């Protein structure tokens, strides 16, 4: 199944419900103020891309599906979510393997990007690129070559921008809901 949606949220419960497909089991906002978040989700054949902008600090409990791997990308200038105690750095990606259960927390305004794909697909891609067997680790930090990370971020960002450009969530709609870009 393929599809895409961009949504703006004023209630954390609605944001939590929209994130269920990405493995979010529960979400707890830990800061005070008006909740605001924007979420873009893209489903392709065997691949799911998500991009979020959040305003308040929160903790999310995430259960990675048994057949999937979550790849977290550093989007924007940071800070980024802390995944199971692992703080992401500018040139890193973090992967969480099939069936992993972690907390992801943010300390305030945050942009993030994730890719969810089948663990077996990732293993096949890695074998094709390296010529060696690849086992998806439960949780890992990776420091890919700068060019490779730049291309991955470009691919993710281009897909998100295309969906947002076609979305009903126009700049006018964002202003009406109290959303403003960082």
Query: What's the total count of β strands?
Result: 12
Distance between the termini: 32 Å
Write out the CATH superfamily name: Jelly Rolls
Treating each run of at least 4 consecutive H or I residues as one helix, how many helices? 4
Structural class category: alpha+beta
The fraction of residues assigned to DSSP E strands is 35-45%
How many independent structural domains? 1
SSE topology string: EHEEEEEEEEEEHEHH
Task: Indicate the topology.
Layout: E1 3-9, H1 12-18, E2 24-29, E3 37-44, E4 47-54, E5 58-63, E6 68-73, E7 82-83, E8 86-87, E9 93-96, E10 101-106, E11 110-118, H2 119-130, E12 139-142, H3 146-166, H4 171-176
Antiparallel strand pairs: 1-3, 2-5, 3-4, 4-11, 5-10, 6-9, 6-11, 7-8, 7-10, 9-12
Q: Which key terms come to mind for this protein?
A:
globular; five-stranded antiparallel β-sheet; single chain; alpha+beta; seven-stranded antiparallel β-sheet; Jelly Rolls
Would you mind describing this structure in some detail?
- The protein is of the alpha+beta class and 182 residues long.
- The protein has a single domain, classed as Jelly Rolls (Sandwich), CATH 2.60.120.10.
- The protein is 25% helix and 37% strand.
- The strands form two sheets. It has a seven-stranded antiparallel beta sheet with strand order 1-3-4-11-6-9-12, with helices on both faces. Strands 2-5-10-7-8 form a five-stranded antiparallel beta sheet.
- The longest helix has 21 residues.
- The protein starts with a strand and ends in a 6-residue tail after the last helix.
- The C terminus is likely disordered.
């Amino acid at each position: 199944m393929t599809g895409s949606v961009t949504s703006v949220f004023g209630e954390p419960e609605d944001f939590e419900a929209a994130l269920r497909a990405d493995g979010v089991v529960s979400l707890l906002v830990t800061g005070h103020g008006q909740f605001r978040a924007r979420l873009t989700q893209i489903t392709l054949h065997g691949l799911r891309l998500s991009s979020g902008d959040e305003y308040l600090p929160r903790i999310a409990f995430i259960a990675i599906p048994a057949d999937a791997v979550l790849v977290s990308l550093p989007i924007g200038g940071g800070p980024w979510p802390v995944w199971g105690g692992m703080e992401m750095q500018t040139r890193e990606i973090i992967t969480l393997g099939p069936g992993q259960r972690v907390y992801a927390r943010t300390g305030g305004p945050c942009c993030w990007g994730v890719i969810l794909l089948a663990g077996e697909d990732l293993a096949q891609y890695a074998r094709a690129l390296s010529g060696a067997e690849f086992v998806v680790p439960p949780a890992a930090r990776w420091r890919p070559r700068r060019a490779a990370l730049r291309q991955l971020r470009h691919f993710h960002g281009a897909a998100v921008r295309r969906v947002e450009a076609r979305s009903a969530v126009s700049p006018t709609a964002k202003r009406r809901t109290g959303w403003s870009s960082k």
